[in-house]
Amino acid sequence: SSEAKEEGGAGEAIEEDGAERDEERQKAQEGEGKQKEMKEWGLEVLQKYTVQGVKYEVTMLEEALARMSPNLAAIAEWRRKEKECRERRAELEEATDRRDAARARLDALRKQRLDEFMAGFSVITMRLKEMYQMITLGGDAELELVDSLDPFSEGIVFSVRPPKKSWKNISNLSGGEKTLSSLSLVFALHHYKPTPLYVMDEIDAALDFKNVSIVANYIKERTKDAQFIIISLRNNMFELADRLVGIYKTHHCTKSVTINPNKLAQHIPEGSAQAAA
Fold it and tell me: Coil, strand, or helix at residue 143?
């Protein structure tokens, strides 16, 4: 067994010696290669330079480097600025996307406004013709856009043609004709979009007896889905009211009385009513 151990130790020593020789051989080959490169570089390149020329060039490069005095902190500053630029670019893109989305919504709302306005304008214009013809017994009325391409910029022209007369702008009509034209427009608007309450102050002041009766009966029969409060001094207007509120003054005090004309008529004897008439 001791002989076997001696033989094993000798084998390990031989292997280690062989590995060291291989490393030395490889280093020697590398050194020879470097020497050949140095020799080749020295033969081909160094012959073009002189000692004074190389020293002069080194001196010039050192002076140029000294004049440059580079600020190495500029690299970190550039990286920080580049990061900030990327962040600002991302914010710009996000803001641009939001602006485009808002502009698209605005265009959609403008289109919706124009479509709804033109639809309502057509209905109101048609109903205005019918109302004015019914009230005036033969007249005609028209709503026209000043600028058909942009109806919200210039407005609307209201023109009417009273019976047996020519077309006129509403501003050139008499008081009674203006009243009938305005009421026709109010009734047309009520047909398009009803309003629950209307307050009218002496709308019949400039109307004759016939037109007062026409307007009163229209309000009574055709606008039952709304409440009208009308201030009037014409009996053929307030006689058709469901409730009548009288305002009077006595002893320097203003008082009021409210009656139901229909119920009041039921309690008045027929003979008394005829005598009062």
Answer: strand
